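Quarterly update from the structural biology core.
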Amino acid sequence: MNKLVALAVLAIMTSSVWAATQTATLSVPDMNCAACPITVKKALTKVPGVSKTEVSLDRREAKVTFDDTKTNVEALMRATRDAGYASTVAGAAR
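Predicted structure, tokenized:
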């Protein structure tokens, strides 16, 4: 039983070691009105693992901070596409 508890504790501890906060910048060229960034931001914040979003209409981009153990850039791009705004990676995840 002690070995099982020790293994469970070890698994919990090491899973957080591998987690990393990533930031990606998405180019969202079809944003063209004041409501567009609101829609994009709402779609991105619904993605599990997203902790922060900054959407700029002027730059037509979204900067997204996320937990890479819960989501990835492809899921972020899918969220914007599903909201009606196709996106591509403008800045690599780091």
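The chain has three helices and four strands.
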